Amino acid sequence: MRLNKTGLFESLYYEPHAGQLAVHRSTARFRVVACGVRWGKTVCAAMEAIAAAMEPRDKSIGWVVAPTYDLADRVFREVEVIVLERLRHRLIQKKEAERRILLRNMAGGVSEIRAKSADNPVVSLLGEGLDFVVVDEAARLKPLIWQNHVSQRLIDKRGWALLISTPKGKGYFYDLFRRGQGQARDAEHESWNMPSWTNPLLDRDLIEAERDKLPQRVFEQEYGAAFVEGAGAVFRNVREVATGEWKEPQHGEVYFGGLDLAKVEDFSVLTIINAQREVVFVDRFHRLDWGLQVARIRAALQRYNSARATCDVTGVGDPIYEQLRRDGCAISPYPFSAKSKAALIENLSLMLEQRTLVLPRPEICPELVDELESFEYSVTESGHVRTGAPGGGHDDTVISLALAAWQVRKVGGGFKCWRAGPRWGP
Ligand SMILES: Nc1ncnc2c1ncn2[C@@H]1O[C@H](COP(=O)(O)OP(=O)(O)OP(=O)(O)O)[C@@H](O)[C@H]1O
Ligand SMILES: [Mg+2]
Fold first, then answer.
1. What architecture is domain 5-205?
2. Which helix (H) or strand (E) is 331 found in, with range?
3. Across the chain, what does the average pLDDT equal?
4. Does residue 142 or residue 413 have the better pLDDT?
5. Whole-angstrom Cα distance, residue 74 to residue 66?
6. How many CB atoms lie within 10 A of CB 331?
7. Which pTM was predicted?
8. Which residues surround ligand 2, an ion (CB under 5 A)?
9. Structure confidence by residue, pLDDT tens digits, 369-384
10. 43 Cβ closer than 6 Å to some ligand 1 atom
11. CATH number corresponding to 238-408
């Protein structure tokens, strides 16, 4: 007995568009789909996972993987909604915390679908043999995750994979994509390249309106699904200016701080720049007790001649911020909105473009160079342009640097103050 996919999709009231249909019909073991935003990737991925779980088997297990927790959750929610609305009679168990669904498949066997985020592979991608894996936003997986943590899971059971994504430069996803194309095609691979406008449900005029709003190379990548190297990058010359060293505080020097406080999942980062626009100190810490964070930040600011700092205060009444103020740190808020963030990022981008900033060498602060290089333009679900880390990854180091750079923007290179601890107004 084989699964009748068409029948299944009909029973789920899912009518794949022509592009999605081509993907669903293919029997290649490795299917690679490079397509534009809003093409219907997540729906296609979720439907494939459900169809796979319905295959008549004694038992089966498959993963839906995405670069971050949020993105993996999005596919999982899609699966969950369909199961709850249309396949409730097949649901055996749903473990919310583990993001795991057990279904009764067409042969009465038990099939499991698990959602996995690839941002902490050692913990979350620990191995079991898989029958299938579906990867959404695959091109945004960190390098080597596919090779070292995901594809290996398919060996035992000769499982299959569907990787679906908007293109992003020419990494492993591009290599896999090429293996399914033209002359280079091997029997196990099939790949497709489809721009957003091949989704007939998307309004073509809306897409054309986006063309004017985005840098051309970004539009070509995001909507045109073109493999353009470095298309979405916001910051240029990052490596060229990353030639500096950490520097101890100098007597008489003025320093400027940028502080990005951790929300839930991320890091707190303090960056200190001198008036010559050299980054002299970066401290990055994760989930410390807040009292310890306050002490650590206060000590660093004091050490750098009572540096004046700007702090991202999206979380109003942040206890760390409030305590630093009470402790007498010269710290001022930078209220975050889409507009103010754009100004902040643009200022940093300009300084890098003009090479007026010196960053620490990549060897001594790898996170800074990594986060700056991967910081990118992208298009949100509501069609707005945003800048940030790919797939909701970390950008705390970038924001902290941007806040410090914001303070130093009016100071020309070579500026020196004759007294320590400047006390000018807020
Ligand atoms: N075959 C289809 N029939 C009806 N609606 C669809 C179909 N495919 C996708 N959609 C709808 O189109 C919208 C975009 O789909 P989806 O979120 O899967 O696209 P995406 O390519 O993952 O987008 P993004 O680039 O934002 O991640 C969603 O509202 C989805 O429900
Ligand atoms: Mg999606």
1. 3-Layer(aba) Sandwich (3.40)
2. strand 331-334
3. 89
4. 142
5. 9
6. 23
7. 0.69
8. 41-42
9. 989 988 887 767 666 7
10. yes
11. 3.30.420.240
